[in-house]
Every structure is written in structure tokens, then in C-alpha cells.
Write a structure and sequence with these properties.
There is one protein chain. The protein is α+β, with helices and mostly antiparallel strands. The chain has three domains: 2-112, Alpha-Beta Plaits (2-Layer Sandwich); 151-241, Roll (Chitinase A, domain 3); 296-451, Trigger factor, C-terminal domain (Trigger factor, domain 2, Orthogonal Bundle). The protein has 15 helices and twelve strands. It has helices spanning 25-38, 51-58, 61-82, 135-148, 199-203, 247-253, 259-293, 300-315, 322-331, 336-364, 370-384, 388-397, 401-420, 433-437, 443-451, and strands at 2-9, 12-20, 87-99, 103-112, 125-127, 151-154, 164-173, 176-177, 183-189, 211-217, 227-241, 422-424. Strands 6, 7, 8, 9, 10 and 11 form a six-stranded antiparallel β-sheet that branches. The longest helix has 35 residues, at 259-293. The relative contact order is 0.10. Its EC number is 5.2.1.8.
């Protein structure tokens, strides 16, 4: 087989392939066997028809078609593997010559990863927020803990934010009842934002037995994107009464004997959370610095594929009804043109990010262990509410297991860059990456520890 590569642009190539017939004997054997299973010829069992008899019955053309359909994809992959191009997405293949007994020739145009020059990572400098836990934040956490042990008591006053109410709900759209919105005796915390928009404004100031009506835009169900007239009846009002934050409460709500110890622990936990947030901020800012610094030619078909995927995800909640999506966008004060422009911008940024991190992963020799891939699978399975085995099966069926592996590798590549970049707080103090992310472990010591 002979193959050559033409560079059409920094992100696209044409691969020209010529395959002599003497390399296609295994493909012809498979073609004869497959076709003989489909043809019934008296005197021969299915699959046992000799090649010359088969050709005399159906002709040479179907045999050649079968060979081409089987051989071309395999020879394309062989040509890609023997070249130095790193392909992206599916190729556009065109068979240019079938010379029976001599050769098959075809071309394949495909997007490729462009050559990307990344900066010295030590030259990247970003600043992140300080880790500071305020007294108000500690008090908020303490009140949240107290709320878990609070009790509800009925009150003889108008409802206000933070109250727990029992309500009946119903709704109509253009006079038609919305069955999904009809419920009785629903318990709801005013201000929690867990129900439809407008419900809190309607309930605040209402008294037991009052009925209020308001208009809201439905975001799900049969009438998603449409305005509905909602009626809510207030059945009862209760307020949450919190226990005192004393030593007795500390012993009841935690492993500590005193409120002072409990509050100190809350402050320490919040500090760890803020430290984690600081690390995530460093990661995001270093990525932004890379995107601003590195020039990345974008493969157009890869971008288009990403745009289509994002548009599909956007219209999916509206049962793929474009008109309903546009009505919802209008409710958000956005035109379809603005939405499409934002979607393309986000898609281009996502592709640019992937290409940069893939390049860094190659240069840094980033690998992914079975344990790391398993951890990501478990995390994703928990997100989607399925077992890890179910998630793996679904990922394999949809061809997404490779994408999951790539995501883990890119994440590791980015953290490798963050560790080498200069990250400072607002005072200009350089942060200790080992303190922020934990000590870095090289591959050999990690494997040795795993073996032990």
C-alpha cells in the first residue's frame, strides 16, 4: 500500500491511498463468503459457493463493492497509523479509482490536531483570592446546623420569608388545566427557590386561608416556555425555632463537648473549603492565561460538531421543538441569533481548550491509571444516579468511554501546568502548590506504593 499526506490547512489534510490487488486477497475471501451466505444456488450450501460460480451468477461488481466497503476503512486507518498526523473526527472518503486486478485508490480528507506551541509554564502568573473565613460566614454555618435540629411551630401572622407553609397549587395555560402543576397539601419553605418563579412574592404577606393568583413562565413539562396563571392557597404557616448554640447543643449536634470547640471546627472546615476553592480558582485562571497566550488554529468540522452537540442539549428539554426554545429565549431577553453566537463562542473555547491540553499531555507524558479512570467513572455514575457498571455499559454503547479517558488526561495535564505556574494571593505571596493540592507523586513511586 502506498499513501501520501497533503496538508490543506493547519487543521486539515488529504490522505491519498493506493492499494494493489495482491494486498486485497483476504478482503476478497471475506467478500465471497459474505455474499455466498446471501445467494441461494442449487447444488451448493449457503456459504460454500465457489468464487467463480458466485461471480457467474451475480457478476463481478457486487464482489468489488463488498471488497471496497470492507477494505477502504481498514486501509485508511493503516495509512493514518503509518503517518505522523493526529486525526480528529470522521474522514470524508472518496474512492477515486477501481482498476480490477490492479489497484484501488481513494482519498480521505480529515481534520487533524494542529501544531501548537505552548509557553514555558513557569512564565504563567495568576493571582487568586485570599483564604479568609469571616465571623459572619461561621455564624451562617452554625445557624445552618442549628436549623437541622430546629422545630416547627404554628404562628398567627402573615407569612414571611423562611416560614414553612402548606399550600394547594393549580395552574392553567390559555384556560386549559396543567395537570402536572396540580397538588394539595404541599410543604414549602418560602424563599428556598424550590418551586416556580413568582411563588415567593405571592406567599409573602399572605395569611392562612388566603388565595393568591400570579403569572409565571413554565420551564418544563407539556407547556414549557408558555405563560401560566397559577393559583396558590395558603393552608397553614409555621416558623422554624432554633435551639440555643450552647454546650448542650454542641453535644447533641456533634462530637464536641463545648460550643467553643464546635465553632472552632466549623471555622477549620470552612478554611479547608476556601482552600479548595482557591485551588479551583488557580486552575481556572491558569487555563484562561493559556487560552490568552497560545494561538490555536481551529478545525472547523470539529467546532461544528461541538456546536451541534450544544444546540442539541439546549433544545432537548423542549422535546426538540425549536419554536419552544425560541419562545423561552425570548422570555430570557435573548434572541436566537445571540444564543447561536454564544453557543459558537463556547464551542470554540471548548475545542481550543481540548487541543491545548492534549498537546500539553503529550509533551508532559501524562498517563491515566486504571485507578484514576475508575474514580472518574464512580464520580460520574453518582452524578447520574446509576451504578458504575451501568455507567460503563452506557458509555461503551455511546462510544463515550474514550472521551472520559481523555477528560481525565486533560485534567491531569492542566494541574501539571498549575503546579509549575506562579500563583500568588492578593498580597503577592506565592502559594505552595503542595499545600494547595497535596504533594505531587511521580509515576514510579505511585506504582511502587500501589504494588506494596
Amino acid at each position: 500500500m502506498k499513501s501520501t499526506v497533503e496538508h490543506l490547512s493547519p487543521t486539515r489534510v488529504r490522505i491519498n491511498v493506493e492499494v494493489p490487488f495482491d494486498e486485497l486477497k483476504p478482503d476478497f475471501d471475506r467478500a465471497y463468503k459474505a455474499l455466498s451466505q446471501q445467494v441461494r444456488i442449487p447444488g451448493f450450501r449457503p456459504g460454500k459457493v465457489p468464487a467463480r460460480v458466485l461471480e457467474s451468477r451475480i457478476g463481478r461488481a457486487p464482489v468489488l463493492d463488498e471488497v471496497v466497503n470492507e477494505a477502504v476503512p481498514a486501509k485508511y486507518l493503516e495509512a493514518v497509523n503509518s503517518s505522523e498526523v493526529r486525526t480528529l473526527g470522521r474522514p470524508d472518503i472518496e474512492v477515486t479509482k477501481i482498476e480490477d486486478g490492479a489497484e484501488i485508490a481513494f482519498t480521505a480528507e480529515v481534520d487533524v490536531r494542529p501544531e501548537i506551541t505552548v509557553p514555558a509554564f513557569g512564565e504563567l502568573a495568576v493571582s487568586v483570592d485570599d483564604v479568609e473565613v469571616t465571623e459572619d460566614e461561621v455564624t451562617e454555618q452554625l445557624d445552618s446546623l442549628r436549623a437541622r435540629f430546629g422545630t416547627l411551630a404554628g404562628v398567627d401572622r402573615a407569612a414571611q420569608e423562611g416560614d414553612f407553609v402548606s399550600i394547594d397549587l393549580s395552574a392553567t395555560v390559555d384556560g386549559e388545566d396543567v395537570e402536572d402543576a396540580k397538588t394539595s397539601g404541599l410543604s414549602y419553605e418560602i424563599g428556598s427557590g424550590q418551586l416556580i418563579e413568582g411563588i415567593d412574592d405571592a406567599l409573602v404577606g399572605a395569611s392562612e386561608g388566603d388565595t393568591k393568583t400570579f403569572t409565571t413562565n413554565l420551564v418544563a413539562g407539556e407547556f414549557a416556555g408558555k405563560d401560566a396563571e397559577v393559583t396558590v392557597k395558603l393552608n397553614s404557616v409555621k416558623e422554624r425555632q432554633l435551639p440555643e448554640a450552647d454546650d448542650e447543643f454542641a453535644q447533641m449536634a456533634s462530637e464536641f463537648d463545648t460550643a467553643e470547640e464546635l465553632i472552632a471546627d466549623l471555622r477549620e472546615r470552612m478554611g479547608k473549603v476556601k482552600k479548595m476553592q482557591q485551588g479551583m480558582q488557580a486552575r481556572d485562571k491558569v487555563l484562561d492565561a493559556l487560552l490568552e497566550t497560545v494561538e490555536v488554529p481551529l478545525p472547523e468540522k470539529v467546532v461544528e460538531s461541538e456546536v451541534e452537540a450544544r444546540q442539541h442539549d439546549a433544545v432537548h428539554p423542549f422535546d426538540h421543538d425549536e419554536k419552544r426554545l425560541e419562545e423561552w429565549l425570548e422570555q430570557q431577553g435573548k434572541t436566537r441569533e445571540q444564543f447561536d453566537a454564544e453557543t459558537r463562542e463556547e464551542a470554540e473555547k471548548a475545542v481550543r481548550t481540548q487541543l491545548i491540553l492534549d498537546t500539553i499531555a503529550d509533551e508532559e507524558g501524562v498517563s491515566v491509571s486504571d485507578e484514576e479512570l475508575t474514580q472518574r467513572i464512580i464520580y460520574q455514575a453518582q452524578r447520574y444516579g446509576v451504578s458504575p457498571d451501568q455507567f460503563v455499559q452506557q458509555a461503551q454503547q455511546s462510544g463515550q468511554l474514550g472521551a472520559l479517558f481523555a477528560d481525565v488526561r486533560r485534567s491531569k495535564a492542566l494541574f501539571s501546568v498549575v503546579r509549575q505556574a506562579k500563583v500568588t494571593d492578593s498580597e503577592g505571596n506565592e502559594l505552595d502548590m503542595d499545600e494547595l493540592f497535596g504533594p505531587q507523586q511521580d509515576e514510579e513511586s505511585a506504582e511502587a506504593e500501589k504494588a506494596e
